[in-house]
Amino acid sequence: MAGARPTIADVAREAGVSRTTVSHALNGIGKVDPRTRERVERVAAELGYRPSLRAQRLRRGEARTIGLVSSMPFAVAGGPSRLGFFMEVAAAAAESALMHGFALVLVPPVEADPPLDSLDIDGAIVVEPDADDSATKRLRDRGLPIVALGRQPGTDLPHVDLHAAAVVRLLLEHLREQGGRRIALLVGSARRHSYVDAAHEYRRFAHEHGMPELVVLAEESGGTEAGYAACADLLDRHPGVDAVCATVDAFAVGAVRALTDRGLRVPDDVMVATRYDGLRARTCEPPLTAVDLHLGQAAEGAVSVLLAEMRRGPARGEAPEVPVPPPVLVPRASSLRR
Amino acid sequence: MAGARPTIADVAREAGVSRTTVSHALNGIGKVDPRTRERVERVAAELGYRPSLRAQRLRRGEARTIGLVSSMPFAVAGGPSRLGFFMEVAAAAAESALMHGFALVLVPPVEADPPLDSLDIDGAIVVEPDADDSATKRLRDRGLPIVALGRQPGTDLPHVDLHAAAVVRLLLEHLREQGGRRIALLVGSARRHSYVDAAHEYRRFAHEHGMPELVVLAEESGGTEAGYAACADLLDRHPGVDAVCATVDAFAVGAVRALTDRGLRVPDDVMVATRYDGLRARTCEPPLTAVDLHLGQAAEGAVSVLLAEMRRGPARGEAPEVPVPPPVLVPRASSLRR
């Protein structure tokens, strides 16, 4: 026995019962005489026996594990800018899952295709999937319950809303209040809710205020450089732009560089604002006006919704309403003229 | 069959073989006629059958999952300051584990006791465990291979070194070069390598330069407030202090506030520097001089060491040498006088 891990057979022999009785006694199943149960429990404790988690899970048909999957390209959310949106969600979701007795497996943006098919999970949260997200498709094909954090455009996947329209309106109203009259919108070219809904709300806002519609697209995978190029192109075509609302922080940082390189001052000549209030927004020079999305609460909400989906099996449509507080503006030097 | 997930029995019936033959054919075990194997594979593909990951794992005795466990109190590393050291390690470790075919389960700092015993993992990385870390103890009691990221004082647990002595020497030499002659060290009171090794190296440095030994301790769980109080106390007892080297970023931020509240200017009157170059260091006013610890590479190294430990079973002593580059100073306004 020295050093070896005690098995169910050791407990059965020591307690003078069958292995089935040990299993029933320790798992609270079947009919076991209370005195026998007590003896089995005592012997198990004395021997230091621990039932196999894996065998228990196989029997119960659950992994007690959920996945958190990024759908953003490595260039935007991986590598040197790892400490962003996804990891902020991950920290809160992992804590929330643990408190519900579930482990959280991280599937961050990776350069190669993530090995999703070999993850033993009961369900997954996908962060801001675009309309054609392949990870979401693969997980759905496995029949797993999935919740999107941020609506997936064009599908009825259960989701926790990140209020993309409200966020962009908050930014546009702030920029207008600070004197912006020709405000451009810089969004990614993927079909992601934070671009699709933002562009829709931007057009509505422009129409309401008789403002020209200046929408520029950038490739997510181009990161900061793509934001720089898109902003430079915007300035060539519309020299009168006085504010840029960029829904990706990497694009906003690129836009500030493009403006500065042309000798334009931020915010005096052109204001810049972005969506996610992370490291990039706070360490940009000047620091960027951004939005508190209450990501921690949204992540906890996504865990609750997913656990509910797992209980009732894969389903479509409206997720239970999750109370994520409305977004709050965090004004900073990049857009404060007064 | 409509909607139901096909089982191994469906494949066996359709292919006209036993379930054991299906299992052997798909898992490449036992002796199966090549034509039979081909037929089973074709039928499995047609039916969309996927073998149970959980059953496979039970058979192979592995979870294909590793844990990443924080040993820091919630007050320092959890809640509003989640995006710190631990999550930077997590992002890199998750990516590295996935590339090796393992899932990474996050066990972040949680307010309650984390349910470590119910995690189905093959091994764990514990981040900077102190000498009495209870998570490490519980995981070792389960017989799991463990690797510490940052040496665990007083044990022979395999680890990846974070060079705490070299880090503090780098900071002290910089502060001295910037004119510091009465440099204080502010460390946590736990027995963590980043305090124990730092204090040892500080004393050696003070001795070398004939500098008074000014070491103040703060409770980790007190966070920024504890740093404030410790610095205020230091200034009361040693008004001539001209630099503070704080090994916890929260303490450094508290120290800057304590100095500013007394009307002292940073860095002109008193310089401040810290260890971890995270959000706190970069967004402090003034921004804090810190150190690039190459956490990403250290985390990847910890994954490699852990996988090696898992292959050879739990062991003690020296871990394979992991090439983490030497720490690099990131000088910022909080200590730049020249």
Task: Describe the structure in your own words.
- The structure is a homodimer of 338-residue chains.
- Chain A has 338 residues and is of the alpha/beta class.
- Chain A has 3 domains: 8-60, lambda repressor-like DNA-binding domains (434 Repressor (Amino-terminal Domain), Orthogonal Bundle); 65-162 and 295-325, Rossmann fold; 164-293, Response regulator (Rossmann fold), CATH 3.40.50.2300.
- Chain A is built from 13 helices and 11 strands.
- A 6-stranded mixed sheet of chain A has the order 7-6-8-9-10-11, sandwiched between helices. Chain A has a 5-stranded parallel sheet with strand order 2-1-3-4-5, with helices on both faces.
- In chain A, α12 (279-283) links the parallel β9 (271-276) and β10.
- In chain A, α1 (8-15) crosses α2 and α10 crosses α11 (249-261).
- In chain A, 52% of the residues are buried.
- The model of chain A has no long low-confidence stretch (mean pLDDT 87).
- At the A-B interface, α4, α6, β2 and α12 of A face α4, α6, β2 and α12 of B.
- Chains A, B: This is Substrate-binding domain-containing protein.
- Chains A, B: Residues 315-338 are annotated as: Disordered.
- Chains A, B: Residues 6-60 form the HTH lacI-type domain.
- Chains A, B: It comes from Saccharopolyspora erythraea (Streptomyces erythraeus).
